[in-house]
Amino acid sequence: MQREVGIALMKRALAIMEDQWPEMANAHMQVPLEYYNSQEIAEREREIFETSPLALVAASELSKPNDYLVRTAVGRSILLTRDSEGEAHAFLNYCRHRGAEPVQGCGNARSFSCPYHAWTYDTRGRLMGMPLGDRYEGLDRSALGLVELSSEERHGFIWVVLRPDSPIDVAAHLGDLDTEIASLGCDRMTYYNSLQEEPLALNWKGVTEGLLEGLHVPYVHAGTFALNPQAAAIDLAFYDAIGAHVRYGLPMFGPDDVARIRATPETQWDPASSIGCVWWISPGLLLAQELYGLIYADLTPGSNVSEAVFRYGWLSPTTEAPEGMASPEEMAARAAQAVSQDQPVWETCGRGLTHGAHDSTLIGRNEKGVQLLHESVARQIGYEGLRYC
Ligand code: FES
Ligand SMILES: [Fe+2]
Question: Quick one: pLDDT at residue 223?
């Protein structure tokens, strides 16, 4: 994080801890249930997911030339490759013959043979040939490659825009967060998988809500996360809307530390170890600092309005755990355990949002991160139904 940003956040963290009072929204928010259930709203959100850069994989998941990986994103099968020269690519994983998915899983290969009739493609998506090729004389094979999507490798992720022929500009998308995300050093980290595309029976915004507040942590994750034992209240946090994105930060020190930190010259402050931040990058990316690494997850709408698809993992700057800490594999396993604790509760929310007779959910003043999330999505899709009380 840039020094000035870190120092400014430290000052806010100190104020919160000193006052034992979080940064609050101006009013409570009421979110009409239609916002989670409406087909028409889901269509408008889909537009955002299809036209925004999505960080579909960590660069380390394709670390070597000819590495490949297939994942689904917003209902599509996407093939990600690193070609023999090290350049990353993304393709719609649909064969140009009759539409089968030519590639499954992940691995290292110079070419891919479609399982249906063995049309073969290279790592740049070019059609190399097919059995009985002389029967297909006259076809322009150069026009029958896999459909490539715009992609960009930046800050340790491979970002993709899912709609063909759309431009990509990740720096413009991140806006004022571009340098902050760069400073996390994800390009030097290794991905450890926790969950591979888990379907959850709750609208994607309902799941995202649960990632932007800590209020549930003592009840749902008792004993799983190392909570700040000195923070008297779980909601002591600060929040910012940064363009379409949200930063949610927590002091990692207690009230007893405030006087000592204030007595130390600012030049000696260490924001990196004194604050923990969570970033929601619109529309579905989540990065969260946790001990020596980062949670890296994405949430996308599922096959209907009451389903989300969650991919979740842990990025580690080292293969060995620092002294006294859990290994990267254990951190990833713990992240998966946390989701398994959240999931049953989230799914009750899913049923509540579908069948509830109440007309809205209530997002308190101390859930400002959730409010900023809804305000961002509402702004992007032109929804005017959010109310305040
Ligand atoms: S569908 Fe792929 S080769 Fe026929
Ligand atoms: Fe949780």
Answer: 76
Give the number of whichever ligand sits closest to the CA of residue 211.
2
User: What mean pLDDT is reported for the chain?
Assistant: 95
**What is the CA 22 to chain-centroid distance, rounded?**
25
From the CA of 130, how far away is ligand 1's center (Å)?
Answer: 9
Ligand 1 atom closest to 117 (CA): 3
Ligand found nearest the CA of 214: 2
Residues with Cβ within 6 A of ligand 1? 95, 97-100, 102, 114, 116-119
Q: Angle of helix 255-263 relative to helix 3-19, nearest 10 degrees?
A: 130
Give the pLDDT confidence score for residue 2 in this predicted structure.
83
Superfamily of domain 65-168: Rieske [2Fe-2S] iron-sulphur domain (2.102.10.10)
pLDDT digits (tens, 9 = 90+) for 317-327: 999 999 999 99
Q: Whose C-alpha lies nearest to ligand 1, atom 3?
A: 117
* Cα separation values, 85 from 64, 126, 160, Å: 10, 15, 19
Fold match, 3-52+176-388 / 65-168: no
Residue 224 has a pLDDT of 77
| pLDDT exceeds cutoff 60 at 229 | no
Judged by DSSP in three states, 298 sits in: strand
For the entire predicted model, the pTM comes to: 0.96
Which homologous superfamily is 3-52+176-388 in? Answer: Naphthalene 1,2-dioxygenase Alpha Subunit; Chain A, domain 1 (3.90.380.10)
